[in-house]
Design goal:
The chain has nine helices and twelve strands. By secondary structure, it is of the alpha/beta class. The chain binds NADP nicotinamide-adenine-dinucleotide phosphate and glyoxylic acid (GLV).
Length: 312
């Protein structure tokens, strides 16, 4: 099988992915012409895509059978009206491992109150405050997809009681799964630590607004490696100032990079991580891309197609 693939992403991405992608395509039995340079768009069979300044008009790609995103979150490409080709989002085992480690690490930091000992070493022996064990700490996972369900399972394996929330009703052994507005309210009312792993869509924008933040137990911690606009920034800052929210660990922001003057940087109870929770890993992700192209060429359904109506 011979296919023409246009790699539409940054120069750094090209250098990172190209050798792995060539290898993965060959291992999948595909004879591929792969290039970051766009020749005749009408000759392109597949586009491997990440958001960058370049490609925004998909109209000339009349033969293109699919656009394969290097990112899991597709909010920047899914609404593009010129994109009529099938869109595939990234589901990468390496990315999932990375997200599970990020979530477990930051949940444990707050659960164990690690900062008190790491940051406050002053020669005073304070051993009165002992953290509860995991089974006494309620954690909520908003979003139970590939990443949310994997992180939820890892937390449950450490004995955290994990409640999860998703759009459709789900059953995950060991997780108290809820859906709908009532389900969200019930989950938030008990959550001492809330993790957001949802896509950004019209429905999820400002999901954690002032009203929903007020449902959380006093001192609750928010961990957001999903997307910045899932949380209303002003409402979060107000809840932090009022002491209703204990801490926010944020990996994603409305504007990235987060501007130096943004109040999150200087806030003593906000931790900023620079969108590093779970990068796509070239070795594992290129195998996923190659397998999807192989499937399409063999007339089999591709995995991880985006539902454009839902936006994810
Ligand atoms: P996914 O498999 O598509 O899962 C999305 C989950 O969110 C599903 O459980 C879905 O419900 C739920 N959801 C969507 N809209 C909802 C709504 N309106 N109400 C309630 N639940 C809703 O996505 P994923 O692979 O887990 O990735 C999640 C997000 O993580 C990505 O979209 C991206 O924004 C973010 N991400 C961040 C990083 C980083 O480095 N910070 C890296 C990768 C991804 P259903 O189960 O009913 O469909
Ligand atoms: C990263 O944020 C991604 O969506 O892959």
């Amino acid at each position: 099988m011979s296919v023409t693939i246009h790699f539409a992403a940054s120069r750094d991405d090209w250098e990172n992915y190209a050798p792995h992608l060539r290898r993965a395509l060959a291992e999948a039995g595909l004879d591929a012409a792969l290039s970051p340079e766009l020749g005749d768009p009408a000759a392109v069979d597949y586009i491997v895509y990440a958001p960058h300044e370049g490609l925004s008009d998909f109209t000339p790609f009349v033969r293109c059978k699919a656009v394969l995103s290097l990112w899991a979150g597709v909010e920047r490409i899914a609404p593009n009206p010129t994109l009529t080709q099938p869109l595939v989002r990234m589901v990468d085992p390496g990315m999932t491992e990375s997200m599970v480690e990020y979530v477990v690490g930051h949940v444990l930091r707050h659960h164990l109150g690690m900062d008190a000992h790491i940051l406050g070493q002053d020669g005073v022996w304070r051993n009165r405050v002992r953290p509860p064990i995991a089974r006494e700490r309620n954690v909520a996972m908003l979003g139970l997809g590939v990443l949310g369900s994997s992180a939820a399972r890892a937390l449950a394996a450490l004995n955290f009681p994990v409640m999860g929330w998703s759009r459709s009703a789900r059953t995950i052994p060991g997780i108290d799964c809820r859906s709908g507005e009532d389900g969200l309210r019930a989950v938030l009312a008990r959550a001492e630590i809330v993790v957001l792993l949802m896509p950004l869509t019209a429905e999820t924008r400002d999901l954690l607004n002032a009203e929903r933040l007020a449902l959380l137990p006093k001192g609750a911690v928010i961990i957001n490696p999903g997307r910045g606009p899932l949380v209303d920034d002003e409402a979060l800052l107000a809840a932090l100032e009022a002491g209703r929210i204990g801490h926010a660990t944020l990996d994603v922001f409305r504007t990235e990079p987060l501007p130096p003057e943004h109040p999150f940087w200087a806030h003593p109870r906000v931790t900023v991580t620079p969108h590093i929770a779970a990068d796509t890993r070239a070795v594992t992700a290129t195998r996923v891309i190659a397998e999807n192209i192989r499937r399409a060429e063999a007339g089999e359904p591709m995995a991880n197609l985006v539902d454009r109506g839902r936006g994810y």
